[in-house]
Amino acid sequence: MTERGYRRQQLRLPIGSLLAVGFGGLMLIAVAGVLFAGLSSAQHNTFELLGEKADAAVQGMIDQIDATLRPVEDQARWIADAVASGRVDITDKPSLDGFIHGSFAATPQLVGCAIISTDFRTRRYLRSDGTILEEDVSDDALAVRSLENGRSQTASVWGPPYFVDEIEQPLMHMVSV
Predict the structure, then answer these.
(1) CA-CA distance, 177 to 161, in Å (whole number)?
(2) How far apart are CA 116 and CA 149, in angstroms?
(3) Predicted TM-score (pTM) of this structure
(4) Which has the closest alpha carbon to 69: 142, 177, 171?
(5) Whole-angstrom Cα distance, residue 82 to residue 84?
């Protein structure tokens, strides 16, 4: 007993219980740490893999578009070079018509071709039925813009795509100088 007559009881915990709780707590902390590290690493790897797959898909689309448009671009340059060098006389309509229709054989992805002169007279060729249309396009904003852009270019350039109601298809145009 103590001076006041009360006896203080001491709390006694068995060592086995203390060790079980201590080691169990440490194990819980270790497992939680490993689980967090594993999940965050898995998330990072998943996002990285998805990013790589997306990049590969986009690059595949770019390659496919390039494979489709590169021959058209090469053909447009070849036609422009033939006109610029004088091998094809742009004023000789029957010769020009045969030349343009012959050029369609090398580029099956083309649906047509147009040649716009500096006075905004255009000669349009359709691949499907061989139609040749000649018209004044001075009031066609796209034709005027394309011709003006072509004057300032030193190389062939692609214009933005646009939708043509008459044939119900989107088209891309190229200004070849």
Answers:
(1) 19
(2) 12
(3) 0.63
(4) 171
(5) 6
Residue 14 and residue 21: Cα distance in Å, rounded?
A: 11
Per-residue pLDDT for the chain (177 aa), expressed as one digit of tens each?
455 656 666 778 788 888 889 999 999 999 999 999 999 999 999 999 999 999 999 999 999 988 988 888 888 888 888 888 889 888 888 998 999 888 888 888 888 888 888 788 888 888 888 888 888 888 888 778 877 777 777 777 777 776 777 777 777 777 766
> Is residue 16 one of the residues assigned to a domain?
no
The domain tally of the chain equals 1
149 domain residue, yes or no: yes
131 located within any domain: yes
Within-domain flag for 145: yes
Q: For residues 6 and 120, what is the distance between their CA atoms, to the nearest angstrom? A: 116
Interhelix angle for 93-103 vs 15-85, to 10°?
150
Paired tokens of 107: 């580029």
Range of the domain at 56: 46-175
Q: How far apart are CA 99 and CA 88, in angstroms?
A: 8
Phi and psi, residue 175, nearest 5°: -100, 115
